[in-house]
Amino acid sequence: MTTAAATLARTRSAVAGAAADARTAWSYRATAGLAVIGLAALVPALPFDLRLDRLAATLYLALAAVGLGLAVGVGGVPSLAQGAFAATGAFTAAGLVARQGWPLAPAVVAATLAAALAGAVAGVALARFGGVVVAAGTWLLAWLAAFALTGFPSLSGGAQGLALPGTGGLTPSGHYELALGLTALAVGGYAVLARGQPGLALAAARDQPEAAVALGVPLARLRIGAFTASAAAGGLAGALAVQLAGVADPSAYGPALSAKLFIAVVLGGATAAAGGVAGVLVLGLLTLATEAGGLEGFQAGRVQTLLASVAVLVFLGLGDAGLLPSLRRRCRGAAAQHRPERVAPPPATETSSGGRSVLLADGLAKSFGNLAAVDGVGIELESGSVHALVGPNGSGKTTVLQLVAGSLPVDRGRVALDGVDVTREPVRGRVVGGIVRTLQTTAVVDRHTALENVLVGAGLRRRFGGAWRTLLATPKNRAETAATSAGAVEALESVGLAWAADVPAGELSAFDRRLVMVATALATRPKALLLDEPAAGAGSDDVPRLTALLHGLRTRGVAVLLVEHNLRLVRAVADRVTVLEAGRVIASGAPAEVALDPAVRRAYLGGPGL
Amino acid sequence: MSLALQVLVSGLGVGGVYGLVAIGYSLLYRLTGIVYFAFGDLVGLGVFAALLVAAGTGPVSQTSVGAGRFLLALLVGLVVCITVSAAGYALAVHPHLVRGSTIGWVAATVALAFAVRSLVGVFFTRPTYVFPDPLPFRDIGRAGFVSLGGATIQVRTFFVLAVAAALALVAGWVVERTKLGRGLRAITADAQGAAIVGVPVDLFITAAFGLAGGLAALAAVVAAPSAPFATDSGALLGVNGLVAALIARFGSLWASFGTGLGLGVAEAAIASLHIGGAELGPEYREVLPIAFALALVAVRSWRASPAAEPL
Q1: Residue B70: is its pLDDT beyond 80?
Q2: Domains: count for chain A
Q3: Where would you tag: which of A189, A192, A440, B256 has the fewest CB atoms within 10 A of its CB?
Q4: Judgement on whether residues A234 and A374 belong to the same structural domain of the protein
Q5: What is B2-303's CATH number, 3.30.70, 1.10.20, 2.20.28, 1.10.3470?
Q6: What is the pLDDT of residue A187?
Q7: Distance set, CA A459 to CA A123, A321, A561 (Å)
């Protein structure tokens, strides 16, 4: 009895917590979306002869488009194969229903799984490529599916297609309500995923792949996931659409469908959750307009395609953000832009944990062809100290950073973190262990706020941040999200950018954007932080801020390896300095000693000392 | 043996056109970093523009057409294809490259492909068309076919192959020997550097889009009388050219052309050869090469280093 009461109380508090979270996350856009869905659900009750079957078919198309939007807009994967995934779902379902006599529901589930599997395979093949090869590869995949369908009647039923007996228990209005509900769910899922940990990490991987990899974002795995999810949505749409049409027609699932869905997504706005829906509706309206213009029959289809293609070309030429994002920008542009005041970074309060050796790199060597870029370099980093790595251009500083961080495999030598050999560990493993580096170039996602950028780093060790838990907003996921946000805010505070949390990174100054990158690395809670020329491009006002930041890091016990050309900054903050020339260490020690070293003076001043 | 010869010759004839389309894809990829998805349909547009001049939109039996009329048709097809291909760069590619938007040019070039194909379809409504032949190949042998060591070979194929090879040589000459070619190679190596030393980058790239379109269209028009041509034949040429270019890693001109030839032979072999008891057939003709190209891409990707994104 008491256990039941305790369970009840726990459940009640969990529900109350979820309700409170939902209330804070609720926006006018959610209200508007719900209102639209509610009104749309009432359409079958209207007393006109609406072609509900056509509306339902359009909504199934929209469902496939929303799935594709997830891959394109969030995953940054320009997939031209969504029609092939829809075909996989359509012909799997049609084959199971028409030939094996399965009921509709299990056939649809099996078809969705088959499409998801096809998407996963395509993802494994293409996930590691940039957009160009993904586009070309998926386009060929779309043709492959079309050729397979036309060439093998055993799959597709030949030119007549596969006829599905019966209705599967769904009337046209039933299809309409089902399509509406599924599309609404897909849009909601897109929105949740885009704002959650998987979406933020994917956006970082799309806009700044090198930086994302350096932060330990599992790029290939996330992209495979995006492919799989979008293919599953396409397969589900295809499976239901063939039941609605009563026949699975191979000619309806050719490359033209893939192209139409891709164009719809770009037209509506790939970065908006409902962009795919908007794009499909616009293309549908174009079709209706040409029909109203009196065109009929065989030629009508081609004229419609022609007009729609030209309209899309004109629209894309004007700008490719898509309808919904443009609309949103216009609405937001009307609201007053207010920017909070800058505040000084809070003084660090924690005390140093003492100079404990954190990271030991020994005998590192790396050659590119005949060029020995790094040749026998050793470096030791102690907690709460700043170790500067200086040297002329091309002396191998950045290569040392890449070897220590694992971005490049070593030819010889070893890297140990807290006495554990991590030389064979990939980048992600080292970031999780506590070694992280920033890039020489400023690499932040401009469209995202400073906080969203930092969350990519803060979410590195999340255990409950996966796509399923994010979609379902499980209690553990929500608790972890709150903790991650707090960590990200703290990292922003420590670089003095707490005021900028909600400002898009693209609107910040060049140096503030560099600090966002540092905060992102810091949010992974590193033991050893490798900074590649943080002062590059810094103004005279900015160097003192950087000095304060580095002193703050030292008091917090972080071991910093600083590659820097600004020797004034180095002298102000470094506890030790190592000087590289042509891939070898020519001096190492306290800044004052090193500055007097004759070899260093030769390397820097080009002569035999002063 | 005789079947093998037949497969080889007919495959090379088809592959020559694939090779020129592949040259176009590779050249444009290396210049701009894009895949010109409208390319195949633009080649098809060139063929239909030539057909419009040579025979109009009505049904055509495979009768000859006067040499003068055919040359005019060839010229019109060439000019249309060069113009639209170059305009496609200016309207559907360049604006998006400036914005650095991959999805922009992918969507725009795909939309251009469908605009071109449906435009052709509005005027040419029959499923397939027979392109009139200016040269009297059908008077040689039995209706244009001769027996060679037991193989039945269409004489025309040799002509198509010779023209395709000549056009590939022309492409090679332009890239290697002319001022335009030097500029294009400079842009391929380093676009910014080329601009700094005074290469008119946008103009030259536009010219390269025209050149690629023109060469492929010429080959396609010359090959068109060999087999019936449909409104989506251009798109098919585009797919096969892209397969060849992808297998050749968008590599050099000769690598692309050679892969195109090889693809033509492979397709002919798949369609008609019985190898070691394994009997394929026409239905595998397109499927297997595409599957092979995709598998090759996948293998290459996983052998490359995880952080980089090379081809």
Answers
A1: yes
A2: 3
A3: A440
A4: no
A5: 1.10.3470
A6: 94
A7: 24, 28, 23
- Percent residues over pLDDT 90 in chain B: 40
Q: What mean pLDDT value characterizes chain A? A: 86
| CATH code of A427's domain | 3.40.50.300
Contact between A309 and B114 using a beta-carbon 8 Å cutoff: yes
User: Looking at residue A15, what is its pLDDT?
Assistant: 84
Position with higher pLDDT, B310 vs B13: B13
Please report residues of B whose CB lies closer than 8 A to that of A133.
297, 309, 311
* Chain B residues touching A137 at Cβ < 8 A: 246, 294, 297
A156 & A237 share domain: yes
pLDDT digits (tens, 9 = 90+) for A312-343: 888 888 776 788 888 877 776 554 444 544 54
pTM of the entire predicted model: 0.89
Is residue A158 less than 8 Å (CB to CB) from chain B?
no
- Residue in this structure with the two tokens 């390269």, named with its chain if needed: B208
Question: Which residues span the domain enclosing A430?
Answer: 353-434+526-610
One domain for residues A375 and A500: no
User: How close, in Å, is residue B187 to chain A by CA atoms?
Assistant: 19
Contacts of A139 in chain B (CB under 8 A): 35, 37, 110, 242
> How far is Cα A442 from Cα A550, in angstroms, rounded to an integer?
18
Specify the length of chain B in residues. 311
Q: Are residues A429 and A465 in the same domain?
A: no
Quick check: A212 contacting B, CB < 8 Å?
no
Which strand (E) or helix (H) includes residue B265? Answer: helix B253-272
The string of pLDDT tens digits covering residues A118-128 is 999 999 888 87
User: Does A227 lie in the same domain as A136?
Assistant: yes
3-state secondary structure at position A151: helix
Residues A152, A199 within the same domain: yes
Contact list in A for residue B34 (CB cut-off 8 A) is: 132
A60 shares its domain with A183: yes
CB A139 within 8 A of CB B36: no
Please enumerate in sequence order all residues whose Cβ is within 8 A of that of A24, keeping only pairs 6 or more positions apart, or say none. Answer: none
Yes or no: say if B222 and B129 are a contact pair by the CB < 8 Å rule: no
Within a domain: A333: no
Q: Residue B309 pLDDT > 50, yes or no? A: no
pLDDT < 70 regions, chain A: 1, 294-298, 320, 332-354, 605-610
Boundary (domain end) residue, out of A203, A219, A253 = A253
Q: What is the reported pLDDT for A1?
A: 56
Decide: residue A602, CB within 10 A, 0-12 exposed, 13-18 middle, 19+ buried: middle
Answer whether B154's CB lies under 8 Å from B135's CB. no
Task: Give yes or no: residues A515 and A533 share one domain.
Answer: no
Show which of A474, A508, A524 is a domain's final residue. A524
Q: Is A422 inside a domain boundary?
A: yes
Neighbours of A301 (CB within 10 A): 16
- Tell me the pLDDT tens digit for each residue of A571-587: 888 999 999 988 899 88
